[in-house]
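Format notes (please read before filing issues)

Several people have asked whether sequences and structure tokens are stored in separate files. They are not. Every record keeps both together, in the order shown below: the sequence lines, then the token lines. Line labels are part of the format and must not be stripped during preprocessing.
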Amino acid sequence: MRGWLKGTIGLVVLSGVLVGADRIAVGVAEDEAADQILKSGRMSQKPHVSIEGFPFLTQVVTQKLDDVRISADGLTVGEGKDKVALHSFSARLSGVEVSDNMSSATVDTGSGSGLIDYADLSRLLPPASELVPNAGRLSLGGGTRLSLSYGGPGKVKASLGPFPVGEASVHNKGNTVTVDGFRISAMASLLAGVSDQAIAPISFTLAALPAGLNLASVTPQEDGFRLAFDGKDVKLIG
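Then the structure lines:
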């Protein structure tokens, strides 16, 4: 009986040591992965990385991680004058193949989401002078842009200074987002001397998306545009 008890205690202690070693190893790997993702330029700030699955050390042997979660807030997407803040980004990456020293990593499939608020979205749009002929007659500053807000499922509302512009639909093709259907109000058209009240479709491209993912869809919500991302055979590091 005593021999059996000693053996059981020994196994429990050994199991605890192995579990502890596994958790230490995964913590070190998560921090290193976050550093490497930042260095690779796939994200504008160091993300939080969580490597799921147990045990971790067996995944190290195969050099393929089953399930990796990354998240960050206040990332920057876009390039040049089209840079904008991306909030509440999170992604799930499946089948992450890594090198020995974490200097390279590719992802079989990935998906994620993030939010761009309406104030930031407005800064991606051209100034009023480029959208509405004779906009200067509306007594608006040269840098005045459309102010955006939620307009219902698949829709966004806008105003040009005090003048309503109506609603428009939102869709994307690849990483390019297009907003179309805006028409300035009759009063604004009269003051500006504009015969055609329609505003041409407005498009902007979101480059440098996080983790090498692509834009899958755009959904207007109360607090901004909810972006969905996806990708296959994604180069995450290196």
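For reference, the curators noted about this record: Helices lie at 2-40, 56-62, 118-123, 128-131, 186-192. Residues 1-18 have pLDDT under 50 and may be disordered.
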